[in-house]
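#lab-general

N.A. 3:47 PM
ok so I finally got the sequence cleaned up, no stray characters, all 216 residues accounted for. can someone with queue access submit it? mine expired

B.Y. 3:52 PM
send it over

N.A. 3:53 PM
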Amino acid sequence: MAAVLEGSGAGHDALTVPAGGASPLPVDSSRSGSPLRLQTHTSLNQGADDAGRPSPAAERVSPRPSSDLPLPLTALIGREQERAALCALLQRPEVRLLTLTGTGGVGKTRLALEVAQVSRADFADGICFVALAGTLDLTRVIPLVAQALGLWEAVDHPLLEQVQDYLREKHLLLLLDNFEQVVAAAPSLARLLASCPHLSILVTSRAALRISGESE
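B.Y. 4:20 PM
back already:
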């Protein structure tokens, strides 16, 4: 808000509503004075150049996987042997689906994040993290993967095929966390692996996926 007022040359009096009731700032009448509304207005102004065209950042529309893994709140203590073994498995070309199983709270997610971080340099196209905790609908797995990849669903193109087309030539690690509640959707992962020869998938789950090619 201060930046908006300073940029317009207004002082403290700019927040005073005139007698007619009109506010000098572009706020939503239903939420007058809302900082969120002011922030949105400022962001839109900053996103355009002098010619009124979007900035280069706004023009980037090509999807790309995110390698921004969730930031662990604590250091990984111990597990050196498990971490080394998992990293070694991911480097083996015949291991393309690796499932890390264990009971709830044992530390599967924390270990998988550490392995993904250490293995980041081994995947030229990065790492895509997909959180599935709380997901009960089997049909939501592929849409969540597509969302993490930055893909938008096309009316005339099934979403699974879009994901397959995008990942077909990518050397990427897909990290699917908490898969146990949608384990029946595992065949869709098999289809991804069959059509994307350079894709590897690391899964955390309380139960194995029981599909061909899985290393547990």
